[in-house]
Amino acid sequence: TVYDCPLLELPRVENRAGNLTVLQPGWNCPFDVPRVYYLYDVPGGSTRGGHAHKNLRQLIVAAGGSFEVLLDDGRNRRSVFLNRPYYALALYPGIWRELHNFSSGSVCLVLASERYEEVDYIRDYKAFASWKALHRAEGSSDGA
Ligand code: TYD
């Protein structure tokens, strides 16, 4: 469910010359990371996301600025505000997500457990709701 998507506090190496945060698979990142991407230059008022994934796991970090992540598991909704580079929101399969309210100059960094595959996306909310209902009926243990 949306409540199984933890907000991970990441280690900070702080120094007079600035701070550094590490994400390392096998240590504080719960999956291998064959792909990293980032959203930037997002115009004010834009919404990103608007889809779910069947298998992909992700960590989302506000590497700069802030934005809001709306999570939906078909039953529950939860909103998470990210505004510090030392927090990562973990997103597991079967969670519909939308990103809103990007601050000017913000950067949304995403670590992904798989390479890009369009077939892993569910981009239609009704299709997502049906997919969730089917998985519930099958007693799937996808954590959502
Ligand atoms: P999409 O995942 O829909 O963006 P968002 O959810 O942030 O709004 O991706 C936007 C476009 O970029 C879409 O045409 C697919 C392409 N894309 C890739 O080619 N590779 C990638 O790794 C990602 C994430 C997107």
UniProtKB/TrEMBL annotation:
Residues 4-130 form the Sugar 3,4-ketoisomerase QdtA cupin domain. This is WxcM-like domain-containing protein. It comes from Limnoglobus roseus. The chain holds residues 22 to 165 of 176 of the full protein.
